[in-house]
Structures are given as structure tokens and as C-alpha cells.
Design goal:
Aminopeptidase
Length: 161
């Protein structure tokens, strides 16, 4: 069974994680725990209960805000002129030998679910992501994310009412 949980440096093998993107590998191996301790971002890992130390994928979440002027006009009409609170998924990566098996979709779903639960306690309008390239942007667009008006690789998923 797959499990989505906060990174536990004592349990999860960060050194063994490789996704094929050096910056994403380095983040989990060297910086993730440090960022968590400093309150910069929270990191969540996907593991299999049969091998709980083996990280299959991960994502990070942090607080964010956005100027409503950057969003689609239909949404701007419903929002205040002040900065709008959001969540940001800063990184998302799947282990190289697990890519193409739907884990990216699962990780996005886990992140959205976690944000919706947090939203019951802390207000947030949307989940923001910064796609590293056009293929990544297309991945997020497929799940209903919308591009910012001024940055086509920065996308957001409004949570609705």
C-alpha cells in the first residue's frame, strides 16, 4: 500500500532517491530537512508500506500569496485587490525507475488533498506551481491548473468556493 507522509530523515532514504533531475535530487538529499526546520517548506514523501524507507516520490508545500491581477479576469472579479493567500507546491519529483506509472498524478492529488485539509484551518484560494519547462506546464494543465496571465509556466489550481 502506498503512503503519503511527512519526510522522516530517520526512516526515509534520501540519499537513495534519484529522479533524473539533479536539482530535485539534491533538494531532497541535502536541503529538504533544513528547509523544514527553518519553516521554508514542508516535504512529503510517497512510499510503499512494503519498503517504507524507499522514497518513490516527493513534493513540497509552503505558504504563498498572489496579486489577483495576475489571475484570469473571471476570477479577479471575485477577489479582493489585496494579495490573495495561496499554497505553493515548490517541487514535485518521482523516482526515475517509477516514472510513467501514474505516481506524478498521485502526488498532485496528495498535495491537493493536503491543501484542502489545511484550508479548513488556514484560508487559501489556490495551489500554485512553477513548471520548469513546457512539458511540466502541460502536465499541470492536464489536471486543471491555469496559467498566470504574466507567466505561462506559473500555474494555479483554484479551490473553488
Amino acid at each position: 500500500m502506498l503512503d503519503d507522509s511527512p519526510l522522516d530523515p530517520a526512516l526515509h532514504d534520501r540519499r537513495g532517491f534519484e529522479c533524473g533531475v539533479p536539482a530535485l535530487d539534491e533538494h531532497i538529499q541535502r536541503f529538504a530537512e533544513q528547509h523544514r526546520r527553518r519553516g521554508i517548506s514542508s516535504i512529503f514523501v510517497l512510499t510503499d508500506s512494503a519498503q517504507p524507507e524507499r522514497i518513490l516520490g516527493y513534493y513540497t508545500l509552503s505558504a504563498a500569496e498572489v496579486d489577483a491581477e495576475r489571475l484570469a479576469e473571471v476570477e479577479r472579479k471575485k477577489l479582493p485587490r489585496s494579495p490573495v493567500p495561496c499554497f505553493r507546491m515548490g517541487r514535485l519529483a518521482c523516482r526515475a525507475d517509477q516514472q510513467g506509472h501514474g505516481l506524478g498524478k498521485l502526488l498532485v492529488g496528495c498535495a491537493v488533498d493536503r491543501c484542502l485539509k489545511a484550508r479548513q484551518q488556514v484560508a487559501a484560494y489556490a495551489l500554485i506551481v512553477d513548471a520548469k519547462d513546457d512539458a511540466s506546464a502541460a502536465f499541470y494543465l492536464h489536471f486543471g491548473f491555469k496559467p498566470f496571465l504574466d507567466a505561462k509556466r506559473t500555474l494555479y489550481l483554484p479551490f473553488g468556493r
